[in-house]
Amino acid sequence: MEGRMGGAGGGGGGPQELSADNVRGIVLALLSSGFIGSSFIIKKKGLRRAAVSSGISAGVGGHSYLLEPLWWVGMITMIVGEIANFVAYAFAPAVLVTPLGALSIIVSAVLAHFILNERLHALGVLGCVMCIAGSMVIVIHAPLEQEITSVKEIWHMATQPSFLLYVASVIVLVSVLVFHFSPLWGQSNVLIYTAICSLMGSLSVMSVKALGTSLKLTFEGTNQLAYPETWFFMLVVAICVLTQMNYLNKALDTFNTAVVSPIYYVMFTSLTILASIIMFKDWSGQSLGSITSEICGLIVVLSGTILLHVTKDYERIPQSRIGLYAPLSPTSATRLNGELLRHVEEDARRTDNEEKVLRRQEMY
């Protein structure tokens, strides 16, 4: 801890020297964003090929895409990206890794503009620039990762009073939202479902980081699988992820993705960073200037992400038919959104057919 405190730079507010683990975490987070952002484009190309060859779009119940190699390439690309993101949490703090997930949106938007001819508006370009600039600020001022030698140390962090208070607060809030507010206003207020996902998501990321660190130490030769704490963190990951998936699917099946995605990303990222600061003391030993710079960088990234979402071309997609799946984490921002792509493809084909009919009528 002394080395980490010293590396924080005391009272100076300037950039800190990145540790080797931070560099690995950054590289893995960037690779994750690249793979995940690219996977959307590859899967959509695969969906188009499958629809053309079979004549039945996935949006109307077709499953021919399962026989399309390109779609599987996209799915494998996404899985590789998720694995890279999982490992990134084992090397770098969540304060650094989580905001970098927004870069996957940039990759997807830029590739879609050039490959799929989907419009990227001027505000969308500004959103990309803001995400990149904010991410650079966060990377430059990122806190050093605390050296952990055993899962017992992580368990000690997870059972400190401050974090237990946060966990208890999350459980109480989620319970109230699920059993009281969800039945009454879940179908009319977008904040209900997204709040449940974000609160549970913050706990899932902490558990993912704990589990990833345990596996990292195991692969380095210090077996952590013998400790029950490792398996407990694995159980928490499973419970939190399943809860996230359930309520995020409900949110996207009820509300427009253009509304759900930015709200979810902002809430999820903010709560995840808060949980990480409490549990792992990411800001311990950092100067006020560095902390302020990180907060400003985070605000810029969140603002850029919102711009990217609200400028997407959703006007042809009926609200009741927006995708059924979405990201489990902002490191997966707009992730698992394959169903949205299928609906886009179906609506695009229908619009093209209507335009052809109108042209034929005009000829006669």
TrEMBL record:
Coiled-coil portions: none
InterPro entries registered for this protein in UniProt: EmrE-like, Mg_trans_NIPA
Record's bilayer topology term: Multi-pass membrane protein
Localization: Cell membrane; Early endosome; Membrane
Purpose: Acts as a Mg(2+) transporter. Can also transport other divalent cations such as Fe(2+), Sr(2+), Ba(2+), Mn(2+) and Co(2+) but to a much less extent than Mg(2+).
Protein name (database record): Probable magnesium transporter
SUPFAM superfamilies: Multidrug resistance efflux transporter EmrE
Family membership: Belongs to the NIPA (TC 2.A.7) family.
A Pfam family the protein falls into: Mg_trans_NIPA
Single GO cellular component term: early endosome
Membrane-traversing stretches: 23-42, 70-91, 97-116, 123-143, 163-181, 190-211, 231-248, 255-279, 291-311
Subunit field text: Homodimer.
Keywords from the UniProt entry: Cell membrane, Endosome, Ion transport, Magnesium, Membrane, Transmembrane, Transmembrane helix, Transport
GO molecular function, one term: magnesium ion transmembrane transporter activity
